[in-house]
């Protein structure tokens, strides 16, 4: 009898716990500041308002299933691509078409107020984040054009940087650089973004570029998809002094889910995986498929091997927890990089799994108020602060 009663109590407790985290998640405004599905939509002809289960981590129906309220869509092409501004507009066109076909489910939000309106109407609030300053083609008029189309942040550099700012890849891998940090034109970009109310994104930026921005900007900045260097010393992650500087600036760090950024042992595992499948990798690369889609194919083909490589959800939570312990709960959020990474952390199979992050944060002891900040409140504060005075 006692065993049966104990079992009953455990079952009731589990149900209450499940209801609790789902309730907290449902009440939050959940924001993801970096998703690369538009790249796949254009390059692979994917319809994101269709069912992309098994093909991509994201689609319109699954965002709603995951309780997502706000998606900032990455607008991206390689830094050495021809006509990157044209490519940016093609990706924007692809989302505009989705919005036009689904007015009851998703709407463009160009401001904090419009974002809240979309959330109130139970629609996905959609914004653009342009990933790489090369996409403005050294022309402030093109920056204006992207802003007026709905771009609410510009990632100053990608790995292949524009002429006016150095990337983390530049500053760590290149022996000779024509300059380091922002040029005069780069400083004019930052100043103009402040004037527009457009968020400056320092993910991918080199350290000198980062500090040049910190000393110049008059508005809070973001790192749209970066994690913690002290936990995983990857050039794409932020060092403690950078995290402290963003907090002092009033900005926010949106933690990236990329296994290589949250698991210090992942690069070794990936190299071992590539060594086993070198022949297939080399063959696929010769077709012109490119590294990203080659890795997508290999991880899908050898899913059993890939699955055991995936870092735990707890490792992701450790990065969030580290930032909070270092500078406080007001300076961290989520920038998943879904569909821009080849593997997701264990459990976070797709965009329906955001509630598991809420569950993990509750289990870590965070209050509802703090979780609301992490899931989206901190980004909303920074967005609103950038609009102030504009």
- Measured between the Cα atoms of the first and last residue, the distance is 68 Å
Q: Summarize the main sheet.
A: 6 strands, parallel
Pick out the low-confidence regions: 5-16
Q: On the 0-100 scale, what is the average pLDDT? A: 94
Q: What count of domains describes the coordinates?
A: 2
Shape field: globular
Radius of gyration: 21 Å
Query: What is the succession of H and E elements?
Result: HEHHEHEHEHEHHEHEHEHHHHHHEHH
Nutshell version of this structure?
This protein is an alpha/beta fold. The protein has helices at about 1-25, 35-45, 60-65, 85-100, 110-120, 140-150, 170-175, 185-195, 205-215, 240-250, 260, 265-275, 280-285, 290-300, 305-310, 315-325, 355-365, 370-385; strands at about 30-35, 70-75, 105-110, 125-130, 150-155, 200, 220-225, 250-255, 330-335.
Structure description:
- With 390 residues, the protein is of the alpha/beta class.
- It has two domains: 24-263 and 314-387, Alpha-Beta Barrel (TIM Barrel), CATH 3.20.20; 265-310, no CATH class.
- Helix content is 52%, strand content 10%.
- The strands form two sheets. Strands 1, 2, 3, 4, 5 and 6 form a six-stranded parallel sheet that branches. It has a three-stranded parallel sheet with strand order 7-8-9.
Walk me through the topology.
Blueprint: H1 2-27, E1 31-35, H2 37-44, H3 60-65, E2 70-75, H4 84-101, E3 106-108, H5 112-120, E4 124-131, H6 140-148, E5 151-155, H7 168-173, H8 184-196, E6 199-201, H9 207-216, E7 222-223, H10 240-249, E8 252-255, H11 259-262, H12 266-276, H13 278-286, H14 291-301, H15 303-309, H16 313-327, E9 332-334, H17 354-363, H18 368-387
Parallel strand pairs: 1-2, 2-4, 3-4, 4-5, 5-6, 7-8, 8-9
Helix pairs in contact: 1-17, 2-4, 9-10, 13-14, 14-15
